Amino acid sequence: MSIVRLEHLTKTFGGRTAAVDDVSLSIDDGEFLVLVGPSGCGKSTILRMIAGLEEVTSGDVLIDGEPVTAWPPKQRDIAMVFQNYALYPHMTVQENMAFALKLRHVPAPQLTTQVADTAHLLGLSELLDRKPKALSGGQRQRVAMGRALVRKPRVFLLDEPLSNLDAKLRVSMRAELARLHQRYRITTVYVTHDQVEAMTLGDRIAVLDQGRLQQVGSPEELYLAPANRFVAGFMGSPSMNFATVRLRGGERVTAALDGLELEIPDAARRYPGLAEHLGSAVVLGLRPAALSLAGPGDPAVIEVVPLGVEALGDEKHVLFEAPRDGSRDEQRQTGVVPVAVEDTSGTRLWTAKVTQQADLAIGRPVRLAIDVSKAYFFDATSGQAIA
Ligand code: ATP
């Protein structure tokens, strides 16, 4: 059993705003939890506090119910793999992998067997006599993993372990990591800023922003039911599109967007929370796949001018300026043309994911249909999801 529990974990560096702010989270025995978030959100600091490499400002780290916050790293029986692998350059692969076992005075025959087994599992058997400088990036990565796994730690921590590998190798190492986890079932916390890695590897994902936990859940939960605008914008590629819309209605609820009154089907049942926002502005979220090339009978169509077209083989991504808030009638009456809202990364572009056959050119207007049944709504002030 190795359950890791973080209780109100907080870290402040020199009196500035907290790098990690009151994070409480439980990682189950054998679970693969991914900590994800943008650069500087506090992921590595959390990992280092679990490992005992960083002092905790307040809060606790518990392993199997026992507070280990004051314990030195080596007493915690945790193995960590770093982004730069941190292999000992003067030691061979065999020596690198055996090092932690030697420190624990594991008898030589057992040590040799354990290293050989792990090396075999990781496809390193032929490389045991090499030094790190004679290995490729992927092989070094494997040695770092092997070195951490060989001693069967209670908890396995990985800090962006794949970020130094090329794209193809990253995909195959991702599969390898998943396979290793299936086999060993060691409680694992994995840090990445890559939401694809998070979605494919995590049993659960914890999303962080500015030191605060935003949501914890399965990849599907985070994708299908994001708790707030930040999570909605972070999970999914390309990112969700956002626009401010004015809601109207009673029986039928509509959202005014770029001259359209989009009817929200079955709004009372699907989004009961919208009732409180009628007459005011909310943030509409649409994933790029909720926009498609418009056909003749489509009810909700916007005309856009592509600013970029990215052909990706199976599909195309069209980038265009975000539609504006409110209806065109209102714009005419008031003379005020609102500006397009920014997404969480500060851009004012929307993306549509269309089929590879779509005939598109930069600058040539194109009509896109909006599938309103796939809409998300967020409170315009708090950013919390409205459901
Ligand atoms: P990245 O993905 O870029 O590695 P991260 O999410 O892992 O980022 P952390 O490395 O945990 O982020 O850093 C969180 C915040 O704490 C950042 O603002 C960072 O500048 C700050 N920070 C981290 N270590 C220290 C330190 N030793 N002294 C001062 N500030 C620090």
TrEMBL record:
BP-aspect Gene Ontology terms: carbohydrate transport
Domain annotation ABC transporter: ranges: 4-235
A Gene Ontology term for the protein's cellular component: ATP-binding cassette (ABC) transporter complex, substrate-binding subunit-containing
Short name of any one Pfam family annotated for the protein: OB_MalK
GO molecular function annotation: ABC-type transporter activity; ATP binding; ATP hydrolysis activity
Keywords in alphabetical order: ATP-binding, Cell membrane, Membrane, Nucleotide-binding, Translocase, Transport
Coiled coil start-end: none
CDD domains in UniProt: ABC_MalK_N
PANTHER family xref list: MALTODEXTRIN IMPORT ATP-BINDING PROTEIN MSMX (PTHR43875), TREHALOSE IMPORT ATP-BINDING PROTEIN SUGC (PTHR43875:SF15)
Protein name: ABC transporter domain-containing protein
Species this chain originates from: Actinoplanes awajinensis subsp. mycoplanecinus
